[in-house]
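Consider this record:
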Amino acid sequence: MAERTHGTGDARARLKRNDLCSKGFMHQRNKAFTLIEMLVVISIIGVLAGLTVGISKLASDKMRRSRVKAELNALTMAIDAYKAKFGVYPPDNKRTANLILYETKNGQNFTQVVLNTNAAPQLFYELTGCLLTNLTFQDLMFSSRLASADVALQFQVKGFVNASRSLGETKNFLQSLKPNQVAVFYRDQSTNNPVYFLKVPVKGTKAPSKPTQNTWCYNSRNPVNNPGQYDLWTEIVIGDKTLIFGNWNSGN
């Protein structure tokens, strides 16, 4: 009887161990992913990644639009303040021919660019002011000098309205202007001869050439959209679209 009882106990112990092993194996199987489950997870991750990229692009595009609108509004306010002080709007570029200038990176590899006169106004000099010394105009931001002969050549004007022989008589209408908001071109292949324009913070598509720096366009002689006042605008590229932002529309 003792041997049978002992044998029965061993059998029961073996059955219990087998049952535990079977449950452990099934537990491990339940913890593992099947191929279908893995594919479903990968698909979900792909969809979420696509949504994230799309949302990020939309946010970036919206930020570009907002920045251009903000700078357009700031320039409009500065031009209106200029008009209140001098009684006239800032003059535009009176050249009849395109302007040939040069761009460079780090003072090397000059590239010739061609700007039409609307894209090359003297707004930087008129809105920030200049000191006049011996027929030379010195801007207040970079302390660069333009001889009156160069002013006549670049802009077809005798000088700048917002210029005087003392700082007290010169008005800066763009005091918040930063150097990265200014486009720097050169009259020849020398960094000693810069000429400045107000720069748009987003890439543009100006013709006939395509300079890397996008400048604000301006017309106060014969504005088409704001007769009797001035047209201020730019073309920017967002995605595959070219948008026009001007002081007569919202860029939509």
